[in-house]
Amino acid sequence: MMNGEDLVVNQLVIPPNEAEKLVSKAKQVYLRECPCRVKMQVCPVEKWEVCLLFEHASEEDRQKAKLISNEDAVKIVKKTTDRGEIHQVFYFAEGDQPFELCNCCDCCCFPLREARDKGDNFQSMQHSNYVAVTDTESCVGCGDCVDSCFFAARQLSDFVIQLADELCFGCGVCVPTCPEEAIQIEFQA
Predict the structure, then answer these.
(1) What pLDDT does 4 receive?
(2) Which residues, in sequence order, are CB contacts of 89 under 8 Å at separation 6+?
(3) Given this model, what pLDDT does residue 10 score?
(4) CA distances from 58 to 55, 122, 175 (A)
(5) What is the DSSP string of 38-76?
(6) Which one, of 131, 123, 116, lies nearest residue 170 by Cα?
(7) Contact, 179 vs 144, CB < 8 A?
(8) Closest Cα partner for 153 from 110, 109, 119?
(9) Hey, which bits of the chain come out as E strands?
(10) Is 141 exposed, middle or buried (0-12, 13-18, 19+ CB in 10 A)?
(11) Assessment of whether the complete model's pTM goes beyond 0.85
């Protein structure tokens, strides 16, 4: 295997149900502390151990992590989803082999913050095949989803939600914030 610095790495934002599928089907799952949280030290220490590595991760990274069961990995995804964290898969461009699932908070994650800081052009860094669609018949215009959207894809105008599709990455953080259950994640090819 090539040195990790020589490989092209892509990242993909995925909704919680896809994160659960990924970890439940992985051949091996390893748990380690989030390097972003360790460096930033903003989140409490008990929230640091959230990054999941897979069999395609470098041997050096896997040695710094502990092997866990698929069931425990699913529990971590569910716990981080409940906290409103965003799931990002990192994979090698060659062969599309995922090597890490990061369960990212918006206060520490360097890739997320860097993408957001780029403004309207962060699609060059972030990718997703999902979008959060709002059923306008069910939406009451409360704005809870606007407040929860890390990517600023949702705006409220005269109690009507406006979605900027190009800014939405379908992370799913807005879904549980909707008291009317008017938001669902849809796959877009």
Answers:
(1) 45
(2) 11, 12, 14, 19, 22, 98, 100, 101
(3) 83
(4) 8, 27, 34
(5) HHH--S-GGG-EEEEEETTS-HHHHHTSEEE-HHHHHHH
(6) 131
(7) yes
(8) 119
(9) 9-14, 29-33, 49-54, 66-68, 86-92, 97-104, 130-134, 154-157, 160-163, 183-187
(10) middle
(11) yes
The yes-or-no verdict on residue 125 having pLDDT over 80 is no
Residues facing residue 112 across a β-bridge: none
Higher pLDDT, 112 or 43: 43
pLDDT of 93 above 80? no
C-alpha span between 134 and 105 (Å, rounded): 24
Which pLDDT score is estimated for 91? 87
Quick one: tokens of 188? 């877009």
> Which tokens sit at 5?
């610095």
Which residue type occupies 8?
V
Burial of 35 (0-12, 13-18, 19+ CB in 10 A): middle
Degrees to nearest 5, angle at CA 183 with 180 and 186: 160
CA 124 – CA 144 distance, rounded (Å): 28
Rounded to an integer, what distance in angstroms lies between the CA atom of residue 159 and that of residue 143?
Answer: 8
